[in-house]
Amino acid sequence: MINFCTLFNSGYLSRGLVLYQSLQNTCNNFHLYVFAFDDVCYDYLKRLNYKNLTVISLKEFEDEKLLSVKSSRTAGEYCWTCTASTIKYAIQTFNLHQCTYIDADMYFYSNPKVLLNELGNNSVMITEHRYTEVYDQSIDSGRYCVQFMTFNNDEKGMKVLESWRNNCIDWCYARIEDGKFGDQKYLDTWMTEFDGVHEMQHLGGGMAPWNMQQFEFKKQNDKVTVKQKSTGQEYQLVFFHFHGLKLFSNNIVSYTGDKYEMDLDVKQILFEPYTKELIELGEKLKKELPNVNFHAISGNSPQKPINFLSLLRWYFYDIRKNWININGAKTKNRVKHYHYYFTK
Questions:
Q1: 119 with 152: CB under 8 angstroms?
Q2: Which of 137, 158, 164, 192 has the fewest CB atoms within 10 Å, i.e. the most exposed one?
Q3: Backbone angles phi and psi of 316, in degrees to 5
Q4: Are residues 104 and 166 both part of a single domain?
Q5: Cβ distance 327 to 344 under 8 Å?
Q6: Are residue 257 and residue 329 in the same domain, yes or no?
Q7: Per-residue confidence of the chain (344 residues) as pLDDT tens digits?
Q8: Using CB atoms within 10 A of its CB, is residue 104 exposed (0-12), middle (13-18) or buried (19+)?
Q9: Does residue 99 contact residue 4 with C-beta atoms inside 8 Å?
């Protein structure tokens, strides 16, 4: 049994359920512990009673230490503050031998067991950002990404986890300060500070917008393979982290904002199907939860063409960015990489 935990609120419910469905499709023996960060999310998941999913409310989960700092953190900062605590709670409350934290905006394309097999005699696994050089943010954001992290319920694993939890309660903010940033920069010292920490080696794990430029993507027989451009080595894609994807209420999608280049293959193989799945599930959920905004951002996207002049501005300005109209039936490929404009 592979035990996962994640956290999200009702605004991210569609992403969390798409994540869950991807695990259902790829992992035949798993359990997902979801920490619901508002009552709407908790009540919905509790009522639906999904297979292999346990939902935990904030009332069950929050302890005195977390509550003592909650008012000093933004909603996002408090989620970061809680990450280590969710893993600890899942391990201790459900007596798990091991638990892997995963971000809610991830999607699994093959069984993650191959990643956990790397752990061997170690007790903790962390995932490197593996930044493409032009996007390297290691100095500010850290070498490692809080996206897929495994902790064993043993002395070494719990020592690292408890240290991380205490660090995050003491300081966890969305700013750079004294070599810290959020919950993430703390991981930079783990390989030398603690025994039993392993850095994931499989390049099919840890795929994200900041490193996808290093790979070619190919889909065959419902499996996605990635080939490292520098070495020619091929790997089966295990998961992709759709960090930064934004949905707007006028059905405009920003895949990565204007931060990262995207080749056509990754757009067609990964981003388009993932986005469509999000939208379709969001529309279904909207009928059941009409007061919930399942879009990451309220309102319409900027520079939506409304007349000839604004259309010209859209053409000459926004095709340099990654705005996509998901209702579009046709594509017009403007340049080689990630700038595509979908028209109805």
A1: yes
A2: 192
A3: -85, -20
A4: yes
A5: yes
A6: yes
A7: 999 999 999 999 999 999 999 999 999 899 999 999 999 999 999 999 999 999 999 999 999 999 999 999 999 999 999 999 999 999 999 999 999 999 999 999 999 999 999 999 999 999 999 999 999 999 999 999 999 999 999 999 999 999 999 999 999 999 999 999 999 999 999 999 999 999 999 999 999 999 999 999 999 888 999 999 999 999 999 999 999 998 876 667 888 877 899 988 999 999 999 999 999 999 899 999 998 887 654 445 554 444 444 444 444 444 444 444 444 333 333 223 333 323 22
A8: buried
A9: yes
Calculate the CA 127 to chain-centre distance.
Answer: 13
Place of tokens 């919905």: 44
3-state SS assignment for residue 264: helix
Residue indicated by tokens 């295990």: 238
Question: Distance (Å, rounded) from C-alpha 240 to C-alpha 207?
Answer: 5
Residue 43 tokens read as: 């009540």
Give the SS3 label for residue 45. Answer: helix
In the structure encoding, which two tokens stand for residue 226, read together? 């990635």
Q: Token digits for 27?
A: 């992992």
Whether residues 51 and 141 fall in one domain: yes
**Closest CA relative to residue 108, chosen from 10, 222, 250, 189:** 222
Distance, in Å, from the CA atom of 304 to the CA atom of 314, rounded to the nearest integer, reads 7
In angstroms, the CA 311 to CA 216 distance is 33
Query: Using CB atoms within 10 A of its CB, is residue 136 exposed (0-12), middle (13-18) or buried (19+)?
Result: middle
Last residue of a domain, one of 164, 199, 234: 199
The answer to whether 30 touches 54, Cβ cutoff 8 Å, is no
Rounded CA-CA distance 321/339 in Å is 6
Flag whether 207 is in a domain.
no
User: Is there a domain that residue 221 lies in?
Assistant: no
Assign residue 149 the CATH number of its domain. Answer: 3.90.550.10
Burial of 330 (0-12, 13-18, 19+ CB in 10 A): exposed
How many domains are there within the chain? 2
Q: At what angle do helices 272-288 and 13-26 cross, to 10 degrees?
A: 120
